[in-house]
Specification:
The chain has about 250 residues and is α/β, with parallel strands linked by helices. The protein is about 40% helix and about 15% strand. The chain has an eight-stranded parallel β-barrel, surrounded by seven helices. The structure holds 1,3-dihydroxyacetonephosphate (13P).
């Protein structure tokens, strides 16, 4: 049985005060939720205060990025050690915006994942194909390469601390969600890959989230799919009402 996860990726939005306001609203409105794990990922500058406000609550705090070294001459970077220090329990790696805008490749993403695991932080590893890759019939190859390289030298035991997020790039911030069937097809494929790379237990236990224009209006259909274990929400996670409704998805 995989416990669902609903995660909100706030991207580059909100001041510290605005982040605290949203976090505190969610803390109150979602206090009764026990059957779903809830994670929010504010900007770096708000992480410490938000983690403090949510300490002891049912909402975990994730960073959106990290650098794979603990300390050193790496101007402008933030390490897993420092994220743990301010109360983060999770970190997103491999988001398509980091791959596309900042040129991050699988090897770097793999190094970040390993550095996070070494600090006992949980990793939300994003993968996903572009529209061009999908239309060119390369979706499965792209997902296979991303998963294999990003999870290189990560053990079956470490997979307990890895959450996958399938985010088709063409569905991110476009309002164009993958259909329930398209998402399920990709998730089932990813679970099959995990079985081959690790074992049936890892494949069965790993949570695979869907991301890309998840809204209150489409979450229920997505969450009804067998291999969709949660969602990674961008735009709709910035509004307390929408995110709360997504957390309280209804699976018929
Ligand atoms: P949107 O929900 O805004 O499409 O963003 C998805 C995403 O990138 C979450 O990481």
């Amino acid at each position: 049985m995989r416990k669902p996860i609903i995660a909100g990726n706030w991207k580059l939005h909100k001041t510290v005060a605005e982040s605290l306001e949203l976090a505190n609203t969610l803390k109150t409105s979602l206090a009764g939720t026990t059957d779903t794990e809830i994670i929010i990922a504010p900007v770096f500058t708000a992480l410490g205060k938000v983690a403090e406000a949510l300490a002891g609550s049912n909402i975990a705090v994730a960073a959106q990025n990290c650098y794979p070294e603990a300390t050193g001459a790496f101007t402008g970077e933030v390490s897993p050690l420092l994220l743990k220090d301010i109360g983060c329990s999770h970190c997103i790696v491999g988001h398509s915006e980091r791959r596309q805008i900042f040129g991050e490749a699988d090897q770097f993403i793999n190094a970040k994942a390993k550095a996070l695991l070494a600090e006992n932080l949980k990793v939300i590893l994003c993968i996903g194909e572009t529209l061009e890759e999908r239309q060119g019939g390369k979706m499965y190859d792209v997902l296979t390469t991303q998963i294999k390289n990003s999870l290189k030298d990560i053990s079956a035991a470490d997979m307990q601390n890895i959450i996958l997020a399938y985010e088709p790039v063409w569905a991110i911030g476009t309002g164009q969600t993958a259909s329930d069937e398209q998402a399920e097809e990709a998730h089932a494929f990813l679970r099959g890959l995990l079985q081959g790379m690790f074992d049936p237990e890892v494949a069965e236990a790993t949570r695979i989230l869907y991301g890309g224009s998840v809204k209150p209006a489409n979450v229920d259909g997505l969450m009804a799919q067998e291999d969709i274990d949660g969602t990674l929400v961008g735009g709709a996670s910035l509004k307390a009402e929408d995110f709360s409704r997504i957390v309280q998805f209804k699976c018929s």
